[in-house]
Amino acid sequence: MEPLQGLQRVREPLSKPASAAIKAVMGDFPGHLFAGMLCFVIALWWSIKSILKHVCKQQKKYSSLITKEFFFRAELLEGIGMIGTISIGIIGLYSVRVKQNPSSEEFQLVRLMHWHHLAIYVFFALIGGTKILCFTISSLPVSLVKLMLSNAFFVEAFIFYNHTQGRSLVDAFGHQMLSFTAFLAGLVAFIDFLTKNNVVLELLVLSLMMLHGMFFCKVTFVLFPRNKDYAWDLSDHRNVLFLTVCLCLYYALTYVIIGINYALVT
Questions:
Q1: pLDDT by residue (tens digit) across 125-175?
Q2: CA–CA distance from 252 to each of 38, 211, 240, 255 (Å)?
């Protein structure tokens, strides 16, 4: 019994840093998962729509279901859906009660983080509003949607880059990678805005959007594990190395998804 008791005493200090790191994580599981899934689902649908448009233009014909009116209505419904869904996210963001004292430093920091999230939501809601305006007012160029998409990702990249105040190693790295993927998506979206009807650039933007959404979900499960007994050690550099591999594999997976979409659509 003595060796077992000694082993238990050795194990106890090893679990303390992980539990302390978990307590230091700000935010909640549903909010982060909602944002990641929203980004992924939008990118997935846009990739299907982009491939459909490309195939219809190549074949120079439309089916009885996939018509120009279908794409027009889809754009309007997308805009309305984005505004509605993001409004739900904003409501959920401010419906979470913070347990700290309102006068405490932790409470002030959490409130500032909420403002960060609100700014991101607002810019993505502007994409939905731009879609509605561009497809209802003929004088507005449709390319404004791409410009707003680029702006939204640039803003998100900037905010996530400055969103790592007081965070642990893995937490800060996860947000830095989210900033990196958002910046790449914004950059390619801006290049796509400067060009015209380039399906390769469109799919490249959407692959980066999918990557951003998938890695967002991955970071959510890392920072907010459902089972605390198998929580990640947020101060271990090996977990950073593992997340870099996950990021690369997720990016490869986005091309597989787009390839499957193309095969199914065509």
A1: 999 999 999 999 989 999 999 999 999 999 999 999 988 777 889 999 999
A2: 20, 9, 19, 5
Residues 207 and 40: their CA atoms lie apart, in Å, by: 9
pTM: 0.84
Contact between 146 and 189 (Cβ < 8 Å): yes
Cα separation of 53 and 242, whole Å? 38
Provide the sign of the torsion angle of the four alpha carbons 109, 25, 28, 16, taken in this order: negative
Give pLDDT tens digits for 72-82. Answer: 889 999 999 99
Cα separation, 90 vs 105, whole angstroms: 23
Residue type present at position 6: G
How far apart, in whole angstroms, are the C-alpha atoms of residue 214 and residue 42?
12
Specify burial of residue 6 (Cβ count, 10 A radius: 0-12, 13-18, 19+): exposed
* Boundaries of every domain in the chain: 27-265
